[in-house]
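Changelog note: in this version the structure field was regenerated for every chain. One regenerated record is shown below for reference.
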Amino acid sequence: MLARIDASPSADITHLVLRQNPPPEQGERTGRQRSPRAWLQSTIQQYGAPTQGSAFEPCSIENRCADVPCLRLTAAVTDTSIELAAADIERIRALDIDVLLLLVAGWPDAGGASLARYGTWSLLAADGHTPLIGDTAAGFREVIEDEPTTGAQLSMQSGGPETRSVLARTRTETHPTLVATNRETLMWGALSLVPRELERLHRLGNAALPAAPAGQGASQAAAAFSPGAPRLARHLLHLLAKRLKRSIRYRLFQEHWHLRYAFGEEPSTAFRQFESLVPSRDRYWADPMPLFHEGHWHIFFEDLPEATDKGHISMISFDDHHRPLPPRTVLERPYHLSYPFVFHWDQRLWMIPETASNRAVELYECTEFPDQWELRRRILEDHYIVDATLERHDGRWYLFGNQVENPGASSWTELFLFVNEGDLLDGAWTPHPDNPIRSDVRCARPAGPLYRTGESLLRPSQDCSRRYGGGMTLHEINELGPERYSEQIVNRIQPDWEPDLKGAHTYSHRPGLTVIDVMKEVPRPGLFGRLPEPVQRRVAHLLAARRAADDH
C-alpha cells in the first residue's frame, strides 16, 4: 500500500509519525502466559494461515520509507483513542499535511482533532471499529458466526467523533472455515482503498469527500468481537466439524454445471420451463453465450473436462426446428479459456474469451465459422481480468470485468470499467474514473452480456457471497459515460426453483434466446457404481436432501 502511494503521481509520503514505544509494564502477559480466551482466539485466527506472502507479515515502515523524515512522539494508545501531548499535536500540525493515515487502533482524542487538511484516515473492518493493520481480529467474527460476507471500510475523521465519515467500502466473500484465509483475502483487497481515495482526492479535491459525516453512532456501530473462552471453544469445534464435513462431501460429490435455455424475444426468468443441455459426468458446461449467426442459433460455452481441469470453448448449434445438435470444440489454447463473449461488429464475428491466466484480455476474429479464430489484439496487457464483457454505447466501447490488483485479493469482488473512444482494433483503453464501479462480492462479477428490456439497459452479475456462482443479480444502468457510471439492483435470482440446485451464475439474453447455467452436486463417478440404478438414484436423492438441510 505504501509503495503504491509513494509511486503514485497523486500523492507523496512526506513524514512518518512514529510512537516512541514505552517499556513493557511489569506483569504484562507474555505469549506463554496468555489467558485461555486469548490463546483460543489466536489459534482460530491462525487456522489456515498461508505459508508465504501474508498481508499481515510484519515489516519495518522505517526501512520501507528510508528517505522519509520521522517525527517521534509519545502517545497513550487504547482500543478507541490516541492521547497526544499538546506539544506533539502542534508538531504534527506544523507539518502542514493533507492526510494523516493511521496504522494503529483508535482515533486522536479531542485535543488532536483537525491534524490534517483532509482529515485523519483509518482502515477498519466493516464494524467501523476494528483496525485492519496489525494483530487484529478483523475477519474473525464472520467465519465463526457463518456470515456470508466480510467487509472493510476506509474512514475519515476531520474533527471530533461526530465528524467521522466513510470514504470507501469493500465487501468480499467469507471463507467458510479458515479464519486466516478470510483475513488475508479481506486485507489484500482493502489495501487498495487508500491509494484509490488519494487519487480521487487529487483529481476532485473536496468533491471527493463525503457531503455529510456519518456521525459517531454510525462509525462506532459495533464493538470489537471478543467472546469468552467457552464460546470460542465451541466455535473452534464447530469449525473443525464443518471442515471435516466439507472434506467428506468433496470426496463424495463433484460440482456438475450444465446449461438451460428458452427461446423467446423477451428475457425470461421462468426457469422451470427451460430446456436442459447436460454433459457427461466427466466434464461441465458453463458460461453460455447465445449467438444468432447465418440463420441459426448457437450457444458458445466453457467446456471443462475434469481430467485436464483446463477449459476450452465449445458450441452447440440448433437446427431449423430448434433441436440441439452435438457439441463441437471451436477454440482451444495452451491456457484456460472460459466466458466466451461472442458478438458481431463491422459485419464480422468476434470473441473475447476469458484469458485471465494469460494475464491479458484477448480479442479474436472468426475467419471460418465456427472453429477458425485468429487473435487480433491483446486489449489489456498484464491485467488479471475475468469475465470481460463488452458494450457499445453512444459511439464508445465499454469493457466490464473483475480485476485483481493485489495477488491475494478475490477475483469475485471488484468490477472495473474501461473505455475506448476509438476503434476496437487499435483504440486506447483507459480506466474509468469511478473504478472500481462495484466492490461487493454480492453483485460485482459479470454474469452475461448487457441487454435491453424496454428503455432499460440491464447488467447481469454474479452473487458469490455464499459460494462461487451461488446466484445472480440484475442491475439497471442509470448512467453509462466516460466520466460517470451508476446502476441500481432490480432483481436477485437464487437457484431455488428446484430443490437440488446449488448454483446459477450466468444469465445471457439476446432477443430470441435466453440461456443460463446451473449447478448440481452429483456423486463422483464410480462412487455408487456397484449399486443397482434405482438404488443409486434413491441414495443420491437422500444425500441431496440432507445437504440441502445442512445448507439452510
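Spot check on this record: Residues 25-32, 216-222 have pLDDT under 50 and may be disordered. The longest strand covers residues 253-264.
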